[in-house]
Amino acid sequence: MTDVVARGGVAAEILRQCLRVPDRIAIVVGDRSLTYRELDSASAALARQLRAEGVRPGQVVLVHQRQSADTVVAMIAALRVGAAWCVIEPGHPAALLRTLLDDIDCGAIVFGSADPQTPTESVRTLARSAGEHVPALHDRATGHPPDAEPSADLPEDVPAATPAYVITTSGSTGIPKAVVASRANLASMVDGRNYDYDEDDLVTFSAFRLTWDGSLLKTLWALCTGGTSVLPDAHELMDADAVAALARKWRTTHLVATPSFYRLLLPHLAPLRGHLRLVTLAGEALPGTLVEQHRAVLPGVPLSNEYGPTETTVSCLAHPVREVPASIAPIGRPLGASTAYVLDAKLGVVPDGTVGDLYVGGPQISEGYASRPAATAARFVADLFAAGTGARMYHTGDLARVDPHGDIEFCGRCDGQVKVRGARVERHAVEAALESHPAVHQAVVLATANEYGEAALTAFWVPAAAATLLPTPRDLIAHCAERLVAQAVPDRFLALGALPLAPSSKVDEAALRRMLLPGGGGDGE
Q: Where is this region: Disordered (predicted)?
């Protein structure tokens, strides 16, 4: 694997591939593809336009359009002028957009001129709210580079600490924070990928939105190695049939998705048995039942479970899943130069097998939250285990322990475990118990309250396709009672045709909670 850090970073490495394999397909989004030569030409045209409009290194280019090949072009164009990208799809709440624009130094807004969801005047209004001189540029340069490109000198050397992208995350408070990842962070993330591949047929497929950093996991790695990166477009994103068809069409060799969306894709992926070299799941806990389903549909295809908060630049730990876990798969060991520690309240290492707080260190630790010094200081702390000074580690807020094999196991959130009648309950263990029932395909358990205001558990479950007789709540209670302590048995069971997914392809827990409100549509006892 090329040393992206030593060779100048992600932008330099992608441009190197544009010269090396100009006629190879670089990016596919939906039904549109670009060769490396076309990607180079389109991103150069937009980069010159951005530079001519005064965009400076360190500023942020807001890419305000629905997912398409033009989105990727705009991201690379931003890197080429030394700026960072921030992808925001149309329909983002106005209040959240204003909060974001208040936090970042927006140099320009690139929008989809042909998209009715982003009318020119509304984008210009948005640009005015970002600053008096912030230009709004439509994406014509990304599709058809003009013959006479606007002239502007592009910066040759951009410091590695300069921001590469900004991505919003709401955390547990619901208040959006803009996480800033540097060019060094991004290069280290790509260098940490040690996936097995054959350059002649490398095709990665990311079943994600480009608004979520999980989309970068395989996309940038492929572009830095001369492979082909495939993503669904805005029309396909939440359609598992369409997404799977796109993956099959391009004979995907490396696929990445969230566990929730992979459940929907898996029944359609059998034709890829002869092509897939690795399936990577990330973003949520990986239950043992899904590992079993993967083995049944794609026997022999390696499965990897990756972990990483947005603040640690995409993913920083990985576990090759060789055995079916009793509950959820471990999150594994650090990737590349990342480090991970399970610590107590005094930042001391806890004994193996003991649950503690998970901290992550190394070169992928992001710059922090834009314009939020207090929030940054609270979560990014001095790395006591690193040589030298200035190194930081990120307090993930996740509980973890080291298993007998040396792998790190995810044990829930510091703020997510619930105490039910005196016992501390981890909801993933309850979900695993429910999914062991032959008639249950998938389950999600949320902490709720009973009629007396006491902590309780509500289980949402999807029946298995082969189930002919659905279990009653009494049956499910009995099933759980045989496997869990009494306090961990859910008080309520709601059967659903499918679990709602958020734009990130993770389970939409907010939508599930709305079902519990009067008239919310929940069906069960």
A: 137-156
